[in-house]
Amino acid sequence: MPAVTADTLTLPRLPDLPETTTDWRPVRKVVAARKSYEGEGFQVRRPFPGVDLPSADPFLLLDHMGAVEYGPGEAKGAPWHPHRGFETVTYMIDGAFEHLDSTGGGGLIKDGATQWMTAGSGVLHSELPPPDMVAKGGLFHGVQLWVNLPRAAKWTPPRYQDIKAHDIRLLASDDGGALVRVIAGDLAGHRGPGTTHTPITYLHATAAPGARLAFPWPADFNAMVYVLSGKGFVGHERRPLEEGELAVLGNGEALTLRAATEWDVLVLGGLPLDEPVARYGPFVMNTRQEILDAIEDFQAGRLGGTHVPHVGPADEELEK
């Protein structure tokens, strides 16, 4: 771990933000992920939603899957289920997930790849480990993020973005001690391949012990840091943060982090939608009636019957 690596000395570097910067975002809250079970019974760690952090607008859910070494016959997934009204972003660091959808399409997500599924008006899909992983076992580690869709995009036709590992934008910290993978959004003028309906930035960084990672951050975005592995410090006040913990940051225009050990973190933030949220299991809409309609459509077989295009991140038909 991690699957996507590079020599940081050969990569573009983030700007050098001096320690005297006055607009660092402070740590407002630290949340410990809670263990939960999904699909056929595979364990995830979920920092939100929960009692300590019920809302992270525009994000709905973050599930940390693994890292776990499965034995033969132990790997499990999530069989066929519906979605409507939001986007699922599945990022596989190690191992693989096989996706199938209600139109017969699908794809394999593995080794640093991301699949960005916009459920929109509705789709049925399954996410399962491939047969060879079920038979032989192996290392499995990934993350699934749910991103809410604004009211105006709830009924957009479903679509997929298949983001391969080599598509991800790679950067180095100003001191060269951290590798940053930009999956979506803009970081100091460097844009990731993911195309979003909701303005967000989504990063995965690996920092060597003692490395400093600092970068500008949009003032109107919220900001969170989740630790995949290792230990480090967040904020100018150096708040300790370790595996399975999420830091929610306050207002400001820059973030600063420093690794204590080798440290793998997700950094994510977005522009809050500030819209009503009605949610029930795999449906996220704006009103209770829209949830009831989604359940009725699913039970009547009307959900997920449209064509779902599979596209790459550079496809011109995707709108920013």
Give an overview in words.
This is Pirin domain-containing protein. It holds the Pfam family Pirin_C. This protein has 320 residues and is mostly beta strands. It folds into two domains: 263 residues, Jelly Rolls (Sandwich); 26 residues, no CATH class. It is built from two helices and 27 strands. An eight-stranded mixed beta sheet has the order 2-3-4-11-6-9-12-27. A seven-stranded antiparallel beta sheet has the order 1-22-19-24-17-14-13, with no helix packed on it. The C terminus is likely disordered.
How many domains make up the 3D coordinates? 2
What's the N-to-C terminus distance? 31 Å
If strands are numbered along the chain, what order do they take across the biggest sheet?
2-3-4-11-6-9-12-27
What's the total number of strands? Answer: 27
Strand content: over 45%
> How many H/I helices?
2
Uncertain stretches: 314-320
Structural class: mainly beta
Rounded mean pLDDT is 90
